[in-house]
Design brief:
Radius of gyration: 17 Å
Oligomer: single chain
Number of strands: 7
Shape: globular
Helix content: 40-55%
Distance between the termini: 38 Å
């Protein structure tokens, strides 16, 4: 039986590339993002893709997406909890409170919503269990200047990962985190345009790393994986 994966933020970047590669090797993939059109393009009419438009800030939308996957394919094996945004850079006393709130809503609460919906399904399905992969960042280790919003959320994701890894053990739910340093995506291209670091790697290298984590049996888990552009000068540039 083909395994199933829900990917949030699946319309572009790492999410889209992971979806394409997963379907190419036999995964059934739920594609979740706000914009339907790019999801339809990625799905391209495939029976192994399910287009699930929605916003990660809406818990009901994610619960509905998980329920739709379970109704069609019987279960959810993996959540790639991927959706996220960059906020405008600045010192803490220059940051617009709306940008802080939006960062927390998408990068932290959105991932909480995804994990909550997936955990509930994995806990009750038969056979029980599954895997949650949270997309962190090198910013989960050390920040780049002016990144108080983004860095704060990514440090919080590390706490989410550790707690889910512990709480999931009785139910065969594994949780790990991938911390990616500058895969070439629209988000990173925008960062470069604003004067950020030019050291990047192909987005496919990040997607292959996600699939390595997803492919493991539930008796094994990559708790934390860091994959980064080789020429990044130091980890603090994540």
């Amino acid at each position: 039986m083909s395994r199933t994966m829900l990917i949030t933020g699946a319309s572009s970047g790492i999410g889209a590339e992971t979806a394409r590669r997963a379907m190419a090797v036999g995964w059934r993939v739920g594609l979740f993002a706000r914009r339907r059109a790019p999801l339809e393009e990625i799905a391209a009419g495939s029976d192994d893709a399910l287009v699930l438009p929605g916003d990660v800030t809406d818990l009901g939308a994610l619960e509905g997406a998980v329920a739709e996957m379970a109704a069609r394919w019987g279960r959810l094996d993996v959540l790639f909890n991927n959706a996220g945004i960059f906020a405008p850079a600045g010192l803490i006393d220059e940051i617009d409170i709306a940008d802080w709130t939006r960062s927390m809503d998408v990068n932290l609460t959105g991932m909480f919503h995804g994990a909550r919906a997936a955990f509930a399904q994995m806990r009750r399905q038969e056979p029980q269990g599954g895997r949650i992969i949270n997309n962190g960042s090198l910013s989960a280790h050390t920040p780049r200047p002016g990144s108080v919003c983004y860095t704060s959320t990514k440090h919080a994701i590390t706490g989410l990962t550790k707690t889910l890894s512990l709480d999931g053990r009785p139910f065969d739910i594994a949780c790990g985190q991938i911390d990616i340093g500058n895969a070439r995506t629209p988000l990173v291209e925008d960062l470069i345009a604003r004067g950020g670091t030019p050291e990047v790697m192909d987005v496919g290298d990040a997607a292959r790393s996600v699939l390595h984590m997803a492919d493991l049996p539930l008796e094994a888990n990559v708790q934390f994986m860091t994959v980064m552009a080789t020429k990044m000068p130091h980890i603090g540039r994540g």
